Amino acid sequence: MRAAFLLMLTTSSLSAGSLNYPQTHKEDVVDTLHGVRVADPYRWLEDDNAEDTKAWVKEQNKVTFGYLEKLPRREEIEARLKELWNYERVGMPFEKGGRWFYSHNSGLQNQSVLMTAEALEGKASVLLDPNAMSKDGTTSLTDYEPTEDGKLMAYGVSEAGSDWTTLRVRDIASGRDLDDVVKWVKFSGVSWLKDGSGFFYSRYDEPKPGAALTAKNEFHKLCFHKLGTAQSEDKLVYERKDEPKWGFGGHVTEDGGYLIIQVWLGTEPKNRVFYKKIAADAPVVELLHENDARYEFIDNDGPVFYFRTDLNAPCFQVIAIDVRKPQRGNWCIVIPEVPKVLLEDVSTVGGQMFCQYLRDAKTEVRCFDLDGKHVRDIQLPGIGSAGGFGGKRKDTQTFYNFTSFTEPGAIYRMDLKSGESTLWRKPEVKFDGLAYETKQVFYKSKDGTQVPMFIVHKKGLKLDGTNPTLLYGYGGFNINMTPGFSVSRAVWVEMGGVFAMPNLRGGGEYGREWHQAGIKLGKQNVFDDFIAAAEWLIANKYTSSDKLAIQGGSNGGLLVGACMTQRPELYAAALPAVGVLDMLRFEKFTIGWGWKSDYGTVENKAEFKALLKYSPYHNLKPGTRYPATLVLTSDHDDRVVPAHSFKFASRLQECQAKGGPPTLIRIETSAGHGAGTALDKTIEKTADEWAFLVKALGMPN
């Protein structure tokens, strides 16, 4: 039967309009879960190494790219994307051992280059160029950390967008790599000992041949690599064979006295924190082991540890714990919670503590001393998002960036004594941000909850219901959607499009309660929020159903998939990217089990029923007219395996009403979940998306 399928790919077709889709083979696969029989006819597509799956990918791409290449304005859109993306981009600078480091992209480089200089304004030289590591620009730099003296640098590279990382060590003066190579690193940082003799990192065991991109990730380990030795000699610092799903991250404190061990369980918002003294062979101390809240280590003053936590503070506060007397009765609140205003991040530099707040998804920054005394508020250039404010205790300056929907990220240098900020770098982009406006509205969701939404468009927009509109969302995993510049969105609004981004429940914009309102049995709230945003845009004459497209990636791909199956008539087009689309089997691949904190699990009967009720793959109905859909995924996505998109696209093509809009799947090769994707691939993908929307929304040719 499989051999016959290979022939059917090229000899049979399923018509929808002028498109001829490959006829995808179905198998009689049925699971019985909690007494419910659930069909899964496209399960064979989960085997990405099978020849018939590879043939299916090839034939689907043949149809998809054949359609996309002929779309009007596609070449024009791609040319404008290249023009707009061709601007110099500089990353946040930092100093180690009197030497400065920052990333740099001259414009259209596939990957940013790591630069180093002996003075901040001095002549910089290339320290590491990922573009030279592969012909197609798909090798990316995932992490890098210089030693305290600035002489060596550990760095990680990823191939084709995979989460798997290989670590190497580079001599900064010569630009040459040492013999050290550390493999099978994943979900890890790099943290050096103060003397530069070695570093801590996290890894999994080497997967079986052929299983690297799909096998379940379990039994994470925190290890120490001594410089100049083979990885086989690396010391195991911490593991838990009784807890296969625990993950570990090691961080050496600035004073070099402690190793902080962050202990995580998938995407569970609660965590544990352990530590060990660096001196001698001290034991690991389970400081925060009850898994009752989120604890993020900020800094330490000797044995006094500072944490950002939502313990008894849904919007977070800063506490201090003296590890010599760690009992809870001795804990001290340094900076109390501000109700309904999220304390998003905390950093220390020069003996000051910078608190970055989100008020209705917009950044505010306040500065305190280490005792919690207010020093000053930071005056930001406008309404947008700010980040940075890092450095060391002896620093007299710090850097931060600021961005908005219509202004690319500028970097500012701040004098810590006076509090004055001066512009350090501002990119020159061929985009007139002053011609556009950003507003924030609040609308009611299905249950009456007030939800904020940003809307960006050209000034003078007529509210007559005819504007092509892109509604983008995420709504999950405590992740905040905040204002930020995007070249692709800049081109969209230049084309006359409206861009709208609501802050859905499931995110963290208003703290723990906002997140918890959109998880597990409450996940439908997220979809209701998104649907209500679409209805608000239509009711307020921004657009209409035949001019409205929805977009989201990863968990946002699930959002799009669920909303287009629940309300297919509400949208003209849908762009679900690298989405979690089979909600009954997400736990079985790579790190998918880690998402149960948000989604729940099929093992629980009530959660199974909720998952089945909205799972996009399982809720497609034959003969329904679905929006024009471009499913996007990548062959090296080992975060959300491409089988989700493969199965969903197959079922969608099967169910689409006769003569309905196109339902295509675009499968990128040598790319992963998104991070590290080569710029030329990003430009091509965006040009395909916008050209697809031009056609689907009836925009001018």
Task: Report a brief summary of the structure.
The protein is of the alpha+beta class and 701 residues long.
Q: Any key phrases for this structure?
A:
alpha+beta; 34% strand; 8-stranded mixed sheet; 11 helices; 41 strands; 701 residues
Mean residue pLDDT: 93
Q: Based on the structure, what is the oligomeric state of the protein chains?
A: single chain
Radius of gyration from CA coordinates: 25 Å
Give the terminus-to-terminus CA distance: 45 Å
The DSSP helix count reads 11
The biggest beta sheet, please?
8 strands, mixed
The structural class is: alpha+beta
As residue ranges, the low-confidence spans are: 1-17
From the spread of the alpha carbons, the general shape counts as globular
- In what range is the share of β-strand residues? 25-35%
Written description of the protein model:
By secondary structure, this protein is of the alpha+beta class. It has 11 helices and 41 strands. The strands form 10 sheets. Strands 34-35-37-36-38-39-40-41 form an 8-stranded mixed beta sheet, sandwiched between helices. Strands 5, 6, 7, 8 and 9 form a 5-stranded antiparallel beta sheet that branches. A 4-stranded antiparallel beta sheet has the order 10-11-12-13, with no helix packed on it. Helix 1 (2-11) runs parallel beside helix 2 and helix 3 (74-85) crosses helix 11.
